[in-house]
User: Fold this.
Amino acid sequence: MSVGKKTPIQPALHKVIMVGSGGVGKSALTLQFMYDEFVEDYEPTKADSYRKKVVLDGEEVQIDILDTAGQEDYAAIRDNYFRSGEGFLCVFSITDDESFQATQEFREQILRVKNDDHIPFLLVGNKADLADKRRVTFEDAKQRSDQWNVPYVETSAKTRANVDKAFFDLARKISSRKYRSEAQEESSPKKSSCCIIL
Amino acid sequence: MSLAPVVTGISPIEGVPGTKVTIRGENLGFCQDDLMGLIICGVDCLMSAEWKSNNKIVTRSGGGIGKGDIIVVTIQGGRGTSTVQFKGLQEAMGPLKESAVWANVGSVLEQVDTLYDLKCVFESDIQEYGRQSTEVLQKAIYKCKEEADKLFEDVLHRKDRADGTRNAINVLKRFRFLFYLPVNTERNIQKGDYDVVINDYARAKSLFGDTQIQLFKKFYSEVEKKIEDLRNILSEQLIKMPTTLEYQKKIIRNLYHLETPGDPAWQCLGAQHAYILHLLMESRDSHLSRELADHDLGANKGSTPGPPVSSSSRNTTPAAKYNKIMMSSVGEWQASAPVRVLLIEDLGDILSTNFPDMWKLSQAYFGGELLPSSAHVDHFKHPECKEMILELLGVFSGIIRGAIIPQTLNPHGAYIRKYHVWPEVPLDQITPWLPQVLRHIRSCYNTLLMLDLPKDAVDVIKTLLFDLRVHCLTSLFQQTVDHLCSLHSREDWRVEVDDEQGGYTHLPQICEGDIIECAQLVKETVLEGGRREPSLLDHPNISKDIGTLIHNVIVAFAQALRKLTLKDPDDPEVEDVPDRSNQENGTTVALPSVEVQFLITLSNCAYMRRVILPRLGESLVRAGYPKAEVIESIEKSSQTYNELQETLFDAYLEERIDPIIGMIERSMYLGQYDWGKVRHTPTEVRSYVKEILLNVSQVHAEVVAVWPGLIPSLIERMVEVIGEEMARLITCVSSFSQNGALQAHIDLAALNLALNNYMSPTAQASFQEAAEALPKLTSEAKRSKENVLRSFHNKMKFLLACFLDLNPVPNGEQMIASI
Ligand SMILES: Nc1nc2c(ncn2[C@@H]2O[C@H](COP(=O)(O)OP(=O)(O)O)[C@@H](O)[C@H]2O)c(=O)[nH]1
Ligand SMILES: [Mg+2]
Assistant:
């Protein structure tokens, strides 16, 4: 119903949802990505919303970020939020094995809610700057991401390492998936299978 | 570029009126006063807006309901836009949102409304169609309404209770973290999970740090108390040693995270410094008291002068002792090593294990690694830290110097009294261990080198090492000198004659072996050095010293040889020399006569000069000793041996010739012989001549057995002296009878004949002088002289043969004729 109202030149909107246990740095990553700032103090999030225009591979797009609460107190309302997401950054802290274990649950919840095995999804190991406190090896994380068939990236919201990469990679996945589904709608299944192979 | 504000972030995305909202975006103004308006969901919230930065405003949401934009208005940019939206929730609905009860109540209310509507329709119908039909209905409706009201009341009541409970649960849920925190903190502290405690504390602090609520305050202050306990525990652990660097760093970080006042890292450095210092001094003291106890014990036991250890150890070189040490088991090692060697081993361990951590900690400290990112490194502490490091290394080096090389401590410095506390011990007790000591210090040095220490810190150990090396060098040589000086005790007088060049005993080779062994050990352990150590040879002074040391060690043996023969009445040691060599084989071996000992030693001297010294020179140069110095010291020592050889030669000669000379006169005038009263024509050479020749031949035989090459010069000298004596005796004769003159001619001729081969011009002149003092012979007398000589030649063939170069002259005629 609102399609008519929207200006056609409005750039494509990709909806990203930050998931992961509390304290792993979802908000920090978001704020770093959005405003180049690092927040030292920890303030539990309920649900925050951000939207930013960026140029992705030469094309202007909007990235909409929903930063959610990791605390289980709010687990019940997560289903609602997840439903609106087009891509997920599933964050854990490499200094906290429990947060890594929790990613399994988040993954399952997302797959259940979205009912889509190929939903754009990145496994993100944050706080990579705290190398001396590392509790989750790169190999273990990589193994899990391979098993899920998703990329794994290690970030630091503090140093901004790989922060853009995480968001851009996800946005790219969302974008290419949208094109693909459009293409699928238009073209024959034969062609689309060709695409998939490519 | 547009300055229009744009809101791109909202936290949280929804809330009841009055919710604290953080708004982020761009162009949000440059100060509080730049804010002209702030509208959330259509409601102005400027009143509570708190401008934080150009990107951030914090406010409380107003009463706007439903989803809506967040619009910021600034002086610079005017009315802005928003890419995100806030959803205002209805206050009353807030707590009920998730409530199934509310849904029921809603439907009941709707039903009541519907019924009411229905009633109104009915009433209008009644007015149109009459009351009867509706009366029953109205009753029913009232009843319904009553029931509904009751139901509604019930539900409302239940809802209130549910609300109350839910609110309580919500509060508990949100704050149970805080309520449990004191207990959890306590438990985690006990478990040592300090990270968790710190994390929770940070969280609590940011949530409740400035709470006004009494209950929270109470819990929070309890947490604070626990945290204070933790600070104290950590501060204690921080300075408790020993520990690991990682642990220290962790504690320091924890303390910083807990916002502990003071400078924990610096405190830790100080504690570590004190700890290492304590370890070093404690090790020194415990070893020292052990040594002093041993020392007292030894002093009481060994009341006899000259401890037995010393004299038996005299028979082994330091190098041999060193080799024995190197081959001993750890247990033997521990038992036999001098206390101060064990001390050094211990000190080295202490430094190598503890110092690197302290240094690394200081590096981390000044690198800012340990400080919270907000704090600044206090670079004024740099000198103080360096002071600590230098002090540690200084004490380390001081203790070692005091124990091993006290002579290198500045006698006027403050350190001398602090470190020069060890009793004097004989050099030979420590020397064999010095290479090992060097090895320990060197390994320490290598550990330090890896740390990238400042140069003056490294230099403390570097100079220590250098001084130790020089000491080791001189000690090993000095000990070998001592050893070689006492080598005379091992002389067994067994001569090996390899050629005409002369014979030698085993002593020169022992000497050579010992010197080479020492040189080799010094070369391997001292001269070569290790990583980043200058070669001692490159040091001009040391190079010269090495020349002197080599010289000393070589001439030390000459000293031994001298002691062997030229007895010094002041030296008591020499007395027991013959005994020692006697006992060598268990059975008593007859010692050669003193004269033969002279000869043998003399020959050893020559052998040293001829064979050993050149070979030694080559070996030393091959081993890497500086050529010029080696050659010089070899030449100088060769002279020493030459002098000794000459002295011995003279001594031998004297020893042998004195009795001969004394004998000549006695024997000549035996039985009141008078040259002036000889009646009979002489028919034989007189027996004093035969005695002379016999004596000479004895010497000849003696020398041949040791060093045939010595004979010409030796016998020549003897003949000279004999000639001199003959001339003296003959010229002193007051008168000769005719037969007396003939007899004297015969005697002189016989001596000439026998000793012809060894006749020097001097000797010839003497004999000439004697012959000229005699009256001339008649030709008849000459004939009888020749007869006598012929028969002398025949009789004495074998004796004479030895004077004629071991070749018995086949034809005596010619020789006799020539005389
Ligand atoms: N050192 C470091 N700290 C981080 C990083 N990301 C987040 N943090 C800190 O971790 C705490 C929790 O971060 P936050 O973003 O609120 O976590 P969230 O609950 O996942 O949103 C905060 O104190 C952050 O400062 C990071 O990459 N490195
Ligand atoms: Mg958060």
